[in-house]
Amino acid sequence: MWADASRYLPASVTLLETKGPGHAIELARNALLQGARTIIAVGGDGTVNEALNGFFQEEKVIASDAALAIVPHGTGSDFRRSLKLPLDPAAAAKVIQNGEPKPIDVMKVRYTRADGSSAVRFAANLTSFGMGGAVAARASRSSKRFGGRIAFLLATLHTAASFRCCEVLLTFDEGRAVRAVVTNVAVGNGQYHGGGMWVCPGAVLDDGILDVTIVEHLSVFEIVWNLPMLYNGRIYEHSKVQSHRVKRLRAESSELALIEIDGEPLGKLPLSIEVVPMAINVLCERPPAAFGGSGSLTTSAALRNLPENRQY
Questions:
Q1: Distance CA 300, CA 15 (A)
Q2: Domain range holding 89?
Q3: Are residues 14 and 119 part of one domain?
Q4: I need a labelling partner for 311 at 20 to 30 A (CA). Which of 68, 112, 115, 136 fits?
């Protein structure tokens, strides 16, 4: 993948290989502090997420003039769908070389680790909990032999067979609350997760708002019967689906509810999420002209080969 893409990029791009979970955060942050202004994530959503978190130090952006670029390659690669980035490495490299930086929102997620401690993670795409967290954990352990979509679909079917819905309390913005027994809750800055599941079709990356999709209790039969609605953008039409648009939320449950952040199974409820408007720049194809600027690669670092996080 990198060999295909690198042929179309300047020799000035520095290749940095990660050694384990979390290493890309460190590499991206150090590169930015040393003057790099384009960070290229070569991989899937987990790689992109770690590169994104390298843009922050002590929960603040360290280089507002820098841009994140993506060469998609991974199990899900769902964030690139909302950005409309090509999968072909040569085409992705051309976007990096000739694209425009688009400012986008990110999510600041304060969540609970498996050991009960609190942690903060920034996310560009989507955070979910309930069945989504369990599916991400199973998919991270499964074979990717037949591609990301099949891996997530099989993980969904296997998880559905034994999944137990849980009751959650969601508190939105200034106090509006929803209590429900849920199959899954997705909080989207982007629209897709799980290898193409279109769970937040109304989400916009730069509107300062998060889209919340609540799937209430579904039986195994209902989950399987309604699988097409996960992919065709009609999920809001289901009678057991609620949608909300918020700037912040808190989720808690007396039961174990696993979470995933940009496809990575990182912990469990409780969590809180707030939108950080126009936090970073991402290189996208031209147009729109309104994006402004250019994606200079004179000082750049490319991160590749991020091993998947497996905490569950």
A1: 9
A2: 2-104+279-304
A3: no
A4: 68
Residue 299 burial class via C-beta count within 10 angstroms: exposed 0-12, middle 13-18, buried 19 and up? middle
Q: What proportion of the chain, given as a percentage, has pLDDT over 90?
A: 61
Q: Are 106 and 281 in contact (CB under 8 A)?
A: no
- Per-residue pLDDT for 293 more than 90? no
Q: Does residue 282 register a pLDDT over 90?
A: yes
Strand-pairing partners, residue 67, are 38, 281
Domain match, 285 and 172 both:
no
**165 and 128 both lie in a single domain:** yes
Beta bridge partners of 169: 179, 252
Place of tokens 């997705």: 186
**Section 165-172 average pLDDT:** 95
CA distances to 66, 194, 272, 273 from 100, rounded to whole Å, are: 12, 27, 32, 28
pTM for the model stands at 0.87
CA gap 214, 18 in Å, rounded: 36
Helical spans, DSSP H, in the chain: 2-6, 23-33, 45-53, 79-83, 89-98, 131-141, 148-162, 220-225
